[in-house]
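Quick review question:
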């Protein structure tokens, strides 16, 4: 019998190729959790995922009612849940004013962090009931969210920094747009949201790993410079960035290879270490082995992870 994995944002880029890589093993059924059904259907067919191997269930991660409806719809399928991949994300680096979700929260953080935070919390019950010996939650991280690495030190527009979480403490509604309560910087909102993803993974691990046996981990799959993630950037950036990552930094990786890496973290026995953040390094080499990447002090700050958890619970209506 096949295992079931839910993948958010499987309509393009890394999520789509993760779905493809897992389907290719013939051991996984996919639930593609996406906001555009038709686009996802076309994408699945384009990469050749067999029709009987995937179900598409709608979700808008920025809308918490939709996240709850997704969980209900998933439960109605009667499938058991063996792995969850939190992959969907938005990146809107040249916005002048913040966009907001129905609750008034800044859209990058609402989508990338809060929507996934709620989804993980709701699906914990389902994962606990998995018949798999090693159910897993995999949350996509990124290099620019980790100040321990060069990519995380880039000051354009600013490195990630949640400060004392003042924006969350004060309810995260207008005029607040940043977690630290300071001035709106859209590129930083993305880095902050990805830092929250890693802190959420750490806190899930601390709270639930021993008790449930679920493995919680994150990874940086490499720089997928040609993925549609950069569609909201200047068009010149979109032309130069892949070249720069291929020729100068050596960080470039194809969507297909990135999908294989995520799939490995979902299924391969060597990735069953909970609380780990996996990386293949910043310079890609053929057959390069993965390793557990050291995290910045902020991403390893247990007190901050706990406080972020409590405030996020309030913002999504769990408390
Ligand atoms: P893409 O833009 O190709 O994919 C993002 C996916 O998220 C799409 O399927 C998109 O759906 C979905 N999505 C966006 N907003 C929502 C929403 N509100 N509700 C549901 N789904 C939504 O980006 P990538 O594949 O590059 O990124 C995937 C992950 O990989 C992200 O977590 C990113 O941070 C991470 N990552 C990417 C790197 C890169 O270099 N590209 C490097 C390191 C990490 P739709 O098709 O409808 O827009």
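Suggested answer, residue by residue:
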């Amino acid at each position: 019998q096949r295992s079931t994995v839910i993948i958010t944002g499987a309509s393009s880029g890394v999520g789509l190729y993760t779905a493809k890589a897992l389907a290719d093993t013939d051991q996984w059924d996919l639930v593609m959790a996406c906001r555009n059904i038709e686009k996802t259907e076309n994408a699945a067919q384009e990469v050749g995922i067999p029709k009987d191997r995937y179900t598409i269930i709608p979700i808008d991660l920025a809308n918490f009612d939709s996240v709850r409806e997704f969980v209900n719809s998933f439960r109605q399928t009667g499938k058991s849940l063996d792995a969850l991949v939190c992959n969907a994300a938005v990146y809107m680096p040249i916005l002048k004013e913040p966009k907001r979700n129905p609750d008034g929260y800044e859209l990058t953080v609402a989508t990338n962090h809060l929507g996934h935070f709620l989804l993980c919390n709701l699906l914990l019950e389902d994962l606990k009931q998995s018949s798999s010996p090693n159910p897993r939650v995999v949350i996509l991280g990124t290099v620019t969210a980790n100040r321990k690495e060069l990519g995380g030190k880039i000051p354009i527009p600013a490195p990630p920094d949640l400060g004392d979480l003042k924006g969350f403490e004060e309810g995260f509604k207008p005029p607040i747009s940043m977690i630290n309560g300071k001035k709106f910087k859209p590129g930083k909102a993305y880095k902050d949201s990805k830092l929250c993803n890693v802190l959420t993974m750490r806190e899930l691990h601390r709270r639930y790993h021993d008790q449930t046996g679920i493995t919680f981990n994150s990874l940086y799959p490499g720089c997928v410079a040609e993925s549609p993630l950069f569609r909201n950037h200047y068009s010149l950036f979109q032309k130069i960035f892949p070249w720069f990552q291929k020729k100068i930094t050596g960080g470039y990786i194809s969507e297909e290879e990135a999908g294989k890496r995520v799939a490995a973290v979902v299924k391969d026995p060597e990735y069953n270490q909970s609380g780990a953040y996996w990386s293949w390094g910043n310079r890609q080499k053929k057959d390069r082995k993965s390793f557990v990447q050291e995290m910045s002090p902020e991403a390893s700050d247990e007190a901050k992870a706990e406080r972020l958890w409590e405030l996020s619970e309030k913002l999504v209506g769990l408390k």
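Why it works: Residues 8-9, 11-15, 34-36, 39, 59-62, 87-90, 111, 140, 142, 194, 220-221, 223-225, 227-229 surround NDP (CB under 6 Å). The chain has a mean pLDDT of 95.
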